């Protein structure tokens, strides 16, 4: 019987349980369970449904039992920045607000009263994104000071699921760095900064690195799913897991982790917290083995996902890609990083409005809308690639696109054309693979990251698009 490892990979639009094991030197994946995710309105706040999601986590575990494939360990990864505050009895304080909610509006200015934007970047190396934990906490402090007073613990989303599984409160480093409250030098909470902002020190747990064992299932979980399991922290930030699964060992490439977001950048040994880097809004997120993910957040396929939802998911992504290709000569472009696309009431209308506002031809058909989005994304990739090359003073010959969005063939073609670089697309399940890889490294199935990446390269289909 094979030795299985389980990744529970929860993204902003769906979650999945994926088992991984080695067979004849290759990594084999098996998806055992999948569920929907998305933010829902609770009163006037956009929230995550953590209770429902945790039930889905349990359902997927039961499914493993049902098919007789019980793994030796599991780990959860999710998106970054979001968190819960727990009171002394472990109850969640307030709504489980998600990062696209507007509660952070103006909170950047509140933070800058305490510390300037430049100094904040110099200390943390993290890009300005209005939804970072630092601004969300300022919103809590301003609008619900009582929650901060009652809070004993802050847990980011994957830490919260690990807590519900084991009863152990832990705080994993890669996810914690997305808070903009961690120092890239000490790789620990920046308590001086936390004090300045007036956030209570005690809510911030000691950080653990990916690969750390968190504990075993609580009695309640054990009884419910019918088995016990060790929970091992992967790079719990999904992007951290995805980057660990980039199938290459040289450094002549730029990666794009393509899902709801497109995260485009490089893996580096040290953080660049310079003024130039700050001006480009490049971030230095903490990665596996203390490496840094030096990247830019680009709005990504969220724009296409939203447009698709607005027509009740009538067409699949492949069909939308084909329609976009048919309308490929449509000339208008949008700035894929404009904040107006973060959480618009209606994405289709927002894209049209943007074109109207900027005096461009307004797209009418689904194909035209999709082509505007795909070409704008590809152009944004090209601009970002240039910025990365300028700031590092070198060039990169290829782009590795990993994650679900690597299946968007038309976008890959556009990316190759716009950047003038070869695009290597795949694996599509990079996040789950990275999650499983961290567990396998812990179990010493792999001796090194290099060995793991070689295996990943050999195990999964990678499609090459020439420039
Ligand atoms: C991708 C991601 C990005 C992060 C964004 C919000 O899923 O984790 O890395 O910037 O979601 O948390």
TrEMBL record:
Signal peptide: none
Keywords of the record: ATP-binding, Disulfide bond, Kinase, Nucleotide-binding, Rhamnose metabolism, Transferase
Domain named Carbohydrate kinase FGGY N-terminal: residues: 4-244
Disulfide bond as UniProt keyword: yes
UniProt-listed Enzyme Commission number(s): 2.7.1.5
Family annotation (Gene3D superfamilies): 3.30.420.40
InterPro entries (alphabetical): ATPase_NBD, FGGY_C, FGGY_N, Rhamnulokinase
Top enzyme category: transferase
Molecular functions (GO terms): rhamnulokinase activity
Domain Carbohydrate kinase FGGY C-terminal: start-end pairs: 255-441
Family membership noted in the UniProt record: Belongs to the FGGY kinase family.
PANTHER family for this protein: L-RHAMNULOKINASE, SUGAR KINASE
Protein name: Rhamnulokinase
Species whose genome carries this gene: Blautia caecimuris
């Amino acid at each position: 019987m094979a030795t299985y490892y389980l990744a529970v990979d929860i993204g902003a639009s769906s979650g999945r349980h994926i088992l991984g094991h080695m067979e004849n030197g290759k990594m084999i994946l098996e998806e055992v369970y999948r569920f929907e995710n998305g933010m829902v309105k609770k009163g006037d706040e956009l929230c995550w449904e953590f209770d429902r999601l945790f039930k889905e986590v349990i359902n997927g575990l039961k499914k493993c039992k049902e098919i007789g494939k019980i793994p030796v360990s599991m780990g959860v990864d999710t998106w970054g920045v979001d968190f819960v505050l727990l009171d002394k009895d472990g109850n969640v304080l307030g709504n489980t607000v998600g990062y696209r909610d507007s509660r952070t509006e103006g909170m950047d200015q509140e933070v800058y009263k305490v510390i300037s934007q430049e100094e904040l970047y110099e200390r943390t190396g993290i890009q300005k994104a209005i939804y970072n934990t630092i601004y969300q906490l300022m919103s809590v402090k301003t609008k619900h000071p009582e929650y901060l007073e009652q809070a004993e613990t802050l847990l980011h989303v994957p830490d919260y699921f690990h807590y519900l599984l084991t009863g152990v409160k832990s705080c994993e480093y890669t996810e914690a760095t997305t808070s903009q409250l961690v120092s890239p030098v000490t790789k620990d909470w920046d308590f001086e900064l936390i004090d300045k902002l007036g956030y209570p020190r005690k809510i911030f747990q000691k950080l653990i690195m990916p690969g750390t064992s968190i504990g075993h299932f609580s009695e309640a979980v054990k009884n419910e799913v019918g088995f016990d399991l060790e929970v091992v922290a992967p790079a719990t930030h999904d992007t951290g897991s995805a980057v660990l699964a980039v199938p290459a060992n040289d450094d002549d490439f730029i990666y794009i982790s393509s899902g709801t977001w497109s995260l485009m950048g490089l893996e580096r040994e040290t953080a660049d917290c310079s003024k130039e880097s700050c001006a480009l809004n490049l971030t230095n997120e903490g990665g596996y083995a203390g490496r840094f993910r030096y990247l830019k957040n680009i709005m990504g396929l969220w724009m296409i996902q939203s447009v698709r939802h607005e027509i009740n998911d009538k067409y699949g992504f492949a069909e939308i890609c084909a329609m976009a290709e048919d309308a490929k000569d449509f000339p208008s472009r949008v700035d894929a990083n404009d904040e107006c696309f973060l959480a618009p009431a209606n994405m289709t209308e927002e894209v049209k409005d943007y074109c109207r506002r900027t005096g461009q031809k307004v797209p009418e058909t689904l194909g035209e809308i999709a082509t505007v989005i795909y070409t704008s994304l590809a152009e944004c990739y090209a601009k970002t690639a240039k910025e990365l090359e300028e700031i590092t003073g070198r060039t990169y010959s290829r782009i590795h696109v990993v994650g679900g969005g690597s299946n968007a063939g038309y976008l890959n073609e556009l990316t190759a054309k716009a950047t003038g670089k070869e695009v290597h697309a795949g694996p599509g399940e990079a996040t789950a693979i990275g999650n499983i890889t961290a567990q396998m490294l812990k179990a010493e199935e792999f001796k090194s990251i290099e060995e793991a990446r070689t295996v990943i390269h050999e195990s999964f289909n990678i499609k090459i698009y020439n420039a």
